[in-house]
């Protein structure tokens, strides 16, 4: 992962909240501008004058306020629409990848190392997925070396037990036994070198 994507998830979260804040700010400013506009006051005064002269009905007097109320409903609908879009993007880009990593991590903790995490993104979640995949690969390598060493150890024990029960050993058997010891030593050394790369919990006394 390059340095460009180091804080891309943080930027994404900031953008999501800025979108909601920007939409709310625009709607709030528009609503305040309408409620404090001279045109609204002039319409209301004009309607009251017309009503006092019996030129309009009482329901028409507050028509500008009803228009403002309907516009307020529209603004609330716009904010809700923006929030739904942001929520959908949040679920797709953050929640779903996190859930995917949790499910794979649970499988790994149960001993199933056959799964890998795949996240089609270029952010911290994808980097975390790559780290988990690398950890799984290291575990597989350790387990594979451990299995090979266990098989070699069992074969060596079987051969030495068989040889131990015999009273005399010829030169060929001694040479083969030396080869088996060298092979087992190489596998133990390889596994030891691999384990040296890891740090373990220590209990302070």
Report on the architecture of this protein.
The chain is mostly helical and 205 residues long. Helices cover 78% and strands 0% of the residues. The chain is built from 6 helices and no strands. It has helices at residues 8-35, 38-52, 58-61, 63-109, 124-164, 171-195. α1 (8-35) packs antiparallel against α4 (63-109) and α4 runs parallel beside α5 (124-164). The longest helix has 47 residues, at 63-109. It starts with 7 loop residues before the first helix and ends in a 10-residue tail after the last helix. The model is unreliable at 1-5 (pLDDT under 50).
- The radius of gyration is 37 Å
How many beta-strand segments? 0
Write down the secondary-structure element order.
Answer: HHHHHH
Return the structural class. Answer: mainly alpha
Strand content: under 5%
Average residue-wise pLDDT: 79
Helix content: over 70%
* Termini separation: 40 Å
List the helices and strands and how they pair.
Blueprint: H1 8-35, H2 38-52, H3 58-61, H4 63-109, H5 124-164, H6 171-195
Offer a few descriptive terms.
205 residues, mainly alpha, 6 helices, 0% strand, rod-shaped, disordered N terminus
In short:
By secondary structure, the protein is an all-alpha fold.
């Amino acid at each position: 992962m390059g340095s460009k994507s180091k804080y891309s998830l943080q930027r994404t979260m900031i953008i999501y909240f800025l979108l909601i804040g920007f939409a709310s700010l625009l709607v709030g400013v528009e609503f305040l501008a309408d409620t404090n506009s001279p045109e609204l006051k002039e319409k209301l005064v004009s309607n009251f004058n017309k009503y006092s002269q019996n030129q309009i009905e009482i329901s028409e007097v507050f028509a500008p306020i009803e228009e403002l109320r309907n516009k307020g409903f529209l603004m609330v609908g716009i904010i809700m629409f923006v929030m739904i879009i942001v929520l959908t993007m949040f679920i797709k880009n953050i929640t779903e990848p996190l859930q995917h990593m949790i499910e794979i991590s649970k499988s790994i903790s149960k001993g199933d190392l056959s799964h890998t995490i795949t996240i089609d993104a270029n952010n911290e979640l994808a980097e975390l997925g790559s780290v988990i995949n690398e950890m799984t690969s290291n575990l597989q390598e350790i387990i594979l070396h451990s299995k090979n060493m266990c098989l070699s150890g069992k074969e060596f024990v079987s051969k030495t037990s068989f040889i131990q029960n015999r009273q005399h050993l010829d030169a060929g058997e001694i040479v083969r036994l030396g080869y088996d010891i060298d092979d087992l030593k190489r596998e133990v050394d390889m596994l030891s070198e691999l384990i040296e790369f890891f740090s373990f919990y220590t209990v302070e006394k």
